[in-house]
Amino acid sequence: MTDTSTPRRHRWWLVPLALVVLSSLLVADTYLLKPTIEQLSWKLASCNFDGWDIAATSENNIVLVGNRILHYNGLFWYRAPFSFFLADEEDQALQGKQNSEPTLRRSYEPPLSVVVAYDATHIYAAGTTGILRFNGLWWSQMPAANGLDAFARMLYVQNPDSIYAITRDNEVLYWNGRLWDNLVLPEQFHASAVSGTDDHVVIVGRNQKAFILTNGIWQEVNIPELVSALELSQYADPDFGLQPLTVYGLDDGRIIIGIYEYIDLGVIEASVSRLLLCYNGGDWFTVDVPEGQTLLDINVDDTGLLIAFDVFGNRYKQIHTGESLSWERIDDSAAPYFWGAYTFLDSGEMFVYGQIPTRIEQPCFDCLPEIKPPCSVEHYELAW
């Protein structure tokens, strides 16, 4: 008898798919589903992950880096397959450090200390391991010029074919879409930070150096002239002086340079914000900072006014006072009080890894808050 039934179709393509899903589960750090809007927190399965930086493109795509790579895909956290670069014995040693007494300072360099997300298919991480790239499916090592050690501690992604990195030796590297190489500047200097917008890139460093790239031409920013009217505070180190240490590219196209002084009060040493330099596409002008505060992040709201976080988790917003602008602290006791890794989305969402369990309403220079090993990632929707 002839069999006239429909032949069975063997779905062999399901086998590799099942293997991928199974391998993801085997390295997953938690199997919890996405939290509800009320929970706003992802619980990691253990505290053995030592996170240094976090990036996100949405609440369904979050990356944590440190002694390994953890990736949240909208359903669960999993250990990224590229994490095999970390030897088991070193992994165990770092886990031991994470389970030790909490501290504000870490004396070792992790394999990955920075991560930046341009979009869901272009995520970059860097550290002593080198510079890695995530293409939406897997992580891979980015190629570098011959003889170049691409150990980066800071990244700025203008676009996938134009990326800047600062090494631990304070040199500047540039990715031209094919490979990493040393960036040629009008003057080589000790670089501290790099950032920018679609039209401009700014690199700042010691000895009051700053260069801005516009239409393919690097020009020096006259930092000494812009800060000439500012005097050092009583406890500032005169040898350090006033230095540009941070750069922020704002959503409206402006660029902010943070000017700092270095203070030593015996029980604490810190770089303190003293002034902001703002570039609006044509001129540089100065902007005061909230008095006595050290700012962690600066952006702009829908009306063009600056918004800021300080190191104690307080939020500030510029307000109009007559014909001038001043800073107003936003009184929000529920605001995240953190001392760890964080990232913002343009929508006003914030993701935090590593919070301090107890808020300190006023700066405390004779005590240090206890930081417990974090086991979760917090998600906040900020209202300015």
Which features would summarize this protein structure in a list?
single chain, 384 residues, mainly beta, globular
Walkthrough of the structure:
The chain has 384 residues and is mainly beta. Helix content is 7%, strand content 43%. The protein contains three helices and 28 strands. The strands form seven sheets. The chain has a four-stranded antiparallel β-sheet with strand order 1-28-27-26, with no helix packed on it. The radius of gyration is 23 Å and the shape is globular.
* Unreliable residue stretches: 5-40, 87-107, 356-373
- Indicate the structural class: mainly beta
Distance between the termini: 77 Å
Proportion in helices: under 10%
Give the DSSP E fraction (strand runs of 2 or more residues): 35-45%
What global shape is seen?
globular
Cross-sheet strand order for the largest sheet = 1-28-27-26
**What is the overall number of helices?**
3
**How much is the average pLDDT?**
75
Total beta-strand segments: 28
Rg over CA atoms: 23 Å
| Largest sheet composition | 4 strands, antiparallel
How do the strands and helices of this protein lay out in sequence?
Blueprint lengths: L13 H13 L14 E3 L7 E8 L2 E6 L2 E4 L4 E3 L8 H11 L15 E6 L2 E6 L2 E5 L4 E3 L10 E8 L2 E6 L4 E4 L4 E3 L8 E6 L3 E6 L3 E6 L2 E4 L2 H4 L16 E7 L5 E10 L4 E11 L4 E4 L7 E6 L5 E5 L4 E7 L2 E7 L7 E7 L4 E7 L20 E6 L3
Antiparallel strand pairs: 1-28, 2-3, 3-4, 4-5, 6-7, 7-8, 8-9, 10-11, 11-12, 12-13, 14-15, 15-16, 16-17, 18-19, 19-20, 20-21, 22-23, 23-24, 24-25, 26-27, 27-28
